[in-house]
């Protein structure tokens, strides 16, 4: 083996750890990426490991289908993951085929659990390479149980359009501080301004090195994630409450619009990001670590935003791991949390105050069904229908009920899946 290939082994071992964690639990990928063993990789190795794991997760459906035709019985998890990563390198990362195979075989030999499977790894990868890239029918890109749910919710054509987005790496979307020179920034970042004001650039990677980062005039926020806070249309001098605020994208929008903003999240560690973001953007907000459902504070607000914890299936473009770590039982237990938080949010509204509820989930139980149940149990709350293309939402996202069901294919180039509804306190 050449020195060059040996150099790549720690990065590939890192990718194995990432994909193993991503597939075993929700949030596993991020946890593994901050684990010591991973952080000790060279920055270049870390970047390759992450890109490799992400590409494998983005194409996992088709890769596993191709592997199914080559494996007579299930190999140990490390071996399956080595095969997945080997195939990913050869088919999706332009790694030369011989390097993809040789490094996979080498890593099989480097561990007791996979050593007996060195020959199998070699033979299976060579077989896959002979067959060529696996077919990427949309229905094979998502886990079958999730795809079946999407067909049930919107029909096959829409489910296919949603699933097709899994295979694409997304652009980077930025929200701009009011008053920023959008056209000049778009030119500098080689981007375009989308409806609603989001700047979309095809740049990727370390944003802290990008123009005007230190000036604090923009922050990273998906085009769909920027819509819910706009629906509150807060004015200078109004009070706003952002429940479940970290890392703070929506807090920044509310504070930048001039509202006296309180940001609540139960994770003190994640709130640190809110504080850092506020400082960089030269904005202020009161930051509170508390459970949004139990926060003991008697104030009421003109505007409340609840971006509730959810299955996050709408974020698969940036986090393909959410698809594979989600379990059918998650949706029901998260829906119970969401309804508790909605009641708490409603109690913190002034009369006439507006509440926007949103989730980055594609699942109706976390969206449409929450709205109907909330309205049924809260006579003090009315739905405040959202207008066409309000907040920069794609026209196709508006439901007959006046809520938003933003699907990842609703804008060219994609955007995250989100559900949003606006209410008013009678
Ligand atoms: C979808 S993220 C919020 C993203 C954020 N709104 C933004 O735009 O940057 C959900 C957040 O909810 C927080 N969370 C979960 N359960 C919570 C609870 N019971 N009370 C307060 N925060 C909670 C999590 O810590 C997480 O930061």
Automatic annotation (TrEMBL):
Keyword field: Methyltransferase, RNA-binding, S-adenosyl-L-methionine, Transferase
Residue span, SAM-dependent MTase RsmB/NOP-type domain: 147-426
Binding-site residues for S-adenosyl-L-methionine, renumbered to this chain: 244-250, 265, 291, 307
Annotated GO MF terms: methyltransferase activity
InterPro entries tied to this protein: MeTrfase_RsmB-F_NOP2_cat (IPR049560), MeTrfase_RsmB-F_NOP2_dom (IPR001678), NusB-like_sf (IPR035926), NusB_RsmB_TIM44 (IPR006027), RCMT (IPR023267), RsmB/NOL1/NOP2-like_CS (IPR018314), SAM-dependent_MTases_sf (IPR029063)
GO biological process: methylation
Protein EC: 2.1.1.176
SUPFAM superfamilies named in the record: NusB-like, S-adenosyl-L-methionine-dependent methyltransferases
Family membership: Belongs to the class I-like SAM-binding methyltransferase superfamily. RsmB/NOP family.
PANTHER family recorded: NOL1_NOP2_SUN FAMILY PROTEIN _ ANTITERMINATION NUSB DOMAIN-CONTAINING PROTEIN, NOP2 YEAST -RELATED NOL1/NOP2/FMU SUN DOMAIN-CONTAINING
Full protein name: 16S rRNA (Cytosine967-C5)-methyltransferase
Source species: Caulobacter rhizosphaerae
């Amino acid at each position: 083996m050449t020195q060059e290939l040996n150099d790549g082994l720690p990065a590939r071992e890192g990718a194995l750890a990432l994909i193993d964690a991503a597939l075993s639990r929700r949030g596993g990928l991020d946890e593994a990426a901050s684990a010591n063993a991973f952080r000790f990789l060279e920055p270049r190795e870390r970047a390759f490991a992450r890109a490799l794991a992400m590409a494998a997760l983005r194409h996992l459906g088709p890769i596993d289908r191709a592997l199914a035709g080559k494996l007579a019985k299930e190999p140990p998890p490390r071996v399956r993951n080595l095969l997945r990563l080997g195939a990913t390198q050869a088919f999706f990362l332009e790694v030369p085929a011989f390097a993809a195979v040789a490094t996979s075989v080498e890593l099989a030999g480097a561990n007791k659990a996979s050593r007996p499977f060195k020959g199998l790894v070699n033979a299976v990868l060579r077989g896959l390479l002979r067959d060529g890239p696996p077919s990427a029918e949309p229905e094979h890109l998502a886990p079958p149980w999730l795809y079946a749910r999407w067909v049930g919710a919107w029909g096959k054509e829409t489910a296919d359009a949603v699933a097709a987005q899994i295979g694409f790496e997304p652009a980077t979307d930025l929200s701009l501080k009011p008053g920023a020179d959008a056209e000049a920034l778009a030119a500098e970042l080689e981007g375009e301004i989308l409806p609603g004001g989001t700047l979309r650039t095809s740049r990727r990677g370390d944003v802290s090195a990008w123009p005007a980062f230190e000036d604090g005039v923009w922050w990273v926020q998906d085009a769909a994630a920027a819509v819910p806070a706009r629906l509150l249309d807060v004015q200078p001098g109004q009070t706003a409450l952002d429940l479940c605020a970290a890392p703070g994208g929506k807090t920044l929008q509310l504070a930048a619009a001039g509202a006296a903003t309180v940001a609540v999240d139960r994770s003190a560690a994640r709130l640190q990001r809110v504080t850092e973001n506020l400082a960089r953007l030269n904005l202020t907000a009161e930051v509170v670590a508390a459970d949004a459902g139990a926060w003991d504070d008697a104030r009421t607000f003109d505007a409340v935003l609840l971006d509730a914890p959810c299955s996050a299936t709408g974020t698969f473009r940036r986090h393909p791991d959410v698809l594979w770590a989600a379990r059918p039982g998650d949706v029901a237990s998260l829906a119970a949390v969401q309804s508790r938080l909605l009641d708490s949010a409603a109690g913190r509204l002034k009369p006439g105050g507006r509440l926007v509820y949103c989730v980055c989930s594609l699942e109706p139980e976390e969206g449409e069904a929450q709205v109907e149940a909330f309205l049924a149990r809260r006579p003090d709350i009315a739905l405040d229908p959202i207008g066409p293309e309000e907040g920069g939402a794609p026209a196709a996202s508006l439901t007959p009920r006046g809520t938003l069901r933003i699907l990842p294919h609703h804008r060219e180039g994609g955007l995250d899946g989100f559900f949003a509804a606006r209410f008013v306190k009678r």
